[in-house]
Amino acid sequence: MIPFLQRLDAARHVLIAGCGGGFDVYTGIPIATYLKDRGASIVFANLSFSSLWDCGGERIEPNTWLIDAAAKDLPYFPEKWLAEWLLRRGWAAPVYAFAKTGAEPLSHAYRTLLERHPVDLVILVDGGTDSLIFGDEPGLGTVAEDAISIIAACAAAGDRTLLAALGFGIDHFHGVSHHSFLENVARLSCEGGNLGGLSLVQGTPGADAFLDLVDYANLRQPRYSSIVCNSIASALRGDFGNHHATPRTNGTELFINLLMTQYWTFAAEQVLKHMEFAPQLAKTTDFAEAAVVLEMHRDFVDQRPRRTLPL
User: Fold this and answer.
1) Of 11, 37, 58, 216, which sits 20 to 30 A from 187 (CA to CA)?
2) Taking the domain 3-220+259-300, which CATH number applies?
């Protein structure tokens, strides 16, 4: 059995948190389904891009809100759509939304959830693979949100924190080098930080739950359909190449493929050890400060050359 599944099977109370913002938490639904079927209790959380100060949810600490189906109907609100979907399925699991902030406040937010719920495992989920960025790659994608989440979760939960990335190849359009990603995976494999890969297959409970949630969110607010989640859903359904499931990708060339349906899983603390900018980022109190830290780091680091995959 791969180490990631061993960790899942040993857990009874799990926090599944979207680390990169937006719809990232949706990529945790297959994992949550697996855990639920084995009797584990689940808590969901997500770094949010929504206007949480206007959401109408219960504010449980300065940067965290409990979101349920009674929250306000904001134009962009993936966390509320998740809460609605869970309610429709009779799944009693709380959904929290974190404000987009710096690492110090987000660490406090994670600690608050760990005090509020008897969590024995935290799983950070990423739509795409730019959470596995060390800082010297030729392109960083949208790493700031992921890095802040990894720092904050590890500060709160230590070695109880895992990372699962779903959607290999999607971040190409954000400038991410997948050659560098695979090189990073190799480094972690040498140290025992790579916990293995898992493929989703249509027709299995976890994959079908994910597809149903993506379809629900698309109907709920088609203007803001998730590019990442719809790309993964397309790959799950067997679409290939330049297939567009949402008009938001019109005018671009996509490469939908089955590698997008594989989880890459890691020990989050091992990932954190390789993040060259982590010590400075850990001290940030707001997101703008975090962006400056990353910009300054890029000014002084020797970047790896951009290489293509030899396929």
Assistant:
1) 11
2) 3.40.50
What is the distance of C-alpha 292 from the center of its chain? Answer: 22
Q: Is the sign of the CA dihedral 172, 177, 179, 184 positive or negative?
A: negative
Residue type, 49: F
Q: Which residues of 114-144 are buried (b: 16+ CB within 10 A; e: fewer)?
A: beebebebbbbbbbbbbbbbbbbbebbbbbb
Q: Are residues 71 and 57 in contact, defined by beta-carbon separation less than 8 angstroms?
A: yes
Edge-to-edge strand list for the sheet holding 64-67: 58-61, 64-67, 95-98, 41-47, 13-18, 121-127, 161-166, 262-267, 194-199
Query: Is residue 20 classed as helix, strand or coil in its secondary structure?
Result: coil
Tokens of 217: 């969110």
**Distances in whole angstroms, Cα of residue 38 to Cα of each of 86, 120, 198:** 18, 15, 17
Encode pLDDT of 86-128 as tens digits: 999 999 999 999 999 999 999 999 999 999 999 999 999 999 9
- Show the tokens assigned to 154: 């590890």
pTM (predicted TM-score): 0.95
Angle between helices 29-37 and 3-10 (to 10 degrees): 50
